[in-house]
Amino acid sequence: MLDELKTARKVVGIKQLRKSLKGGQVVRVYLAEDADPRLTDPVRTDCAALGVALVSVPTMAELGKACGISVGAAAAGLLA
Q: Is the pTM of the predicted complex or chain greater than 0.85?
């Protein structure tokens, strides 16, 4: 499932993800399990309220790599 982040349209990072979620553009959200819950909990709440699928990724480094960036990422979203 992470493979689709390499080529698909996506947003990376909490701020961009939350903006896109509220705009109704996100079909699936990926959250790193080792990210700060103060950052990820509001995203979880948004996903539940909007009915967006949520996928857990073990580490920020793994999510960052899947997104094609050289640093860790707490969150990413697959765009419609």
A: yes
